[in-house]
Write a structure and sequence with these properties.
Blueprint: E1 3-8, E2 13-19, H1 22-37, E3 47-55, H2 58-76, E4 78-89, E5 94-104, E6 124-127, E7 133-137
Antiparallel strand pairs: 1-2, 2-7, 3-5, 4-5, 6-7
């Protein structure tokens, strides 16, 4: 089951996602990103976008994936509340294919913070001792 939390950080706020698989942890941290911006539980899946990124390591993959979501938010005014993805190992690293569903930002989403950029700050992706995966980073607010 994928879950996320925000954690205290001296710079701004950290976002940490958990899942029983690496994919679920990536989905959870992406939902946690949008939960920094809006009440993500109020976002309905009215429009979907396909995202595909390829990178040589998991940190770069997470960065590029979150950056693509933020670009869609900035360019189209969309917020996402449902994200499903697959990660596969390639010869050169990793490929991520995602389907993100949401709707245009409105007052019903209870807007919070504006995320300016995705960063590598405090980024970690690891398998925890209990077998779950965790992915985290600190966005630039």
């Amino acid at each position: 089951m994928r879950t996320w939390e925000h954690y205290e950080h001296t710079a701004d706020i950290g976002v940490r996602g958990y899942g029983s698989t690496l994919e679920e942890a990536f989905e959870a941290v992406a939902l946690g990103l949008f939960d920094v911006m809006v009440n993500v539980r109020k976002v309905e899946p009215r429009e979907c976008r396909e995202i595909e990124v390829e990178e040589e390591d998991l940190e770069a993959l997470l960065y590029s994936f979150l950056e693509e979501l933020l670009v869609l938010h900035d360019m189209e005014g969309l917020v996402f509340g449902d994200i499903r993805l697959k990660i596969e190992k390639t010869e050169d690293g990793y490929r991520l294919k995602a389907k993100a569903c949401g709707e245009p930002l409105s007052e019903k989403h209870e807007p919070k913070e504006e995320v300016k950029a995705i960063t590598y700050h405090d980024m970690r992706i690891e398998k925890l001792p209990d077998g779950r995966w965790m992915a985290q980073f600190v966005p630039d607010l």
